[in-house]
Amino acid sequence: MSGLSVALALALFPSNSDALKEGECDVCVSFLGKFYESLKENDMKFNSADIEKALVKSCKDAKGKDNRFCYYIGATSDAATKMINEVSKPLSYHAPVERICEKLKKKDSQICELKYDKQLDLSTVDLKKLKVKDLKKILEEWGESCKGCAEKSDFIRKIEELMPMYAPAAAKARTEL
Description:
Layout: H1 3-12, H2 26-41, H3 48-60, H4 64-73, H5 85-92, H6 97-107, H7 110-113, H8 132-141, H9 152-166, H10 168-176
Keywords: Disulfide bond, Secreted, Signal
Family: Belongs to the ARMET family.
Domain ARMET C-terminal: 124-166
């Protein structure tokens, strides 16, 4: 075996101590997994330059923790670092996203510290028992705001009004209760 193929094998198959643990790097794995699937669905050419362009475009629409991940890898306009090639190169030869996240973790441990917030089940949760902060967060995730809302009941009314558009299954389940 040549030295290059040994180096490639070691790069693609790191030792078990480097392997991600269950639930670790969930934002990285989830975001890159969805991104990789979108590349395949759109019959994208798998070369680094095209993948980088698509990644930057995808990151423009990213919100919350996905946007923070994009910032960490340098795929946002305000990012201080540029590690985008650490994603685009391995994706160009179809490396598993878990392996890419393992390598990113070595470069910047913050990437794997990102965790998605626990999602509320809007079909069963009692909105009246939530804090105003949580009600605002629901609206924020939907890209909405509640102008003129002063009372908790105002936020609840706004969420119930918008629910059929943003969470149709939850809205339907709530009407059946």
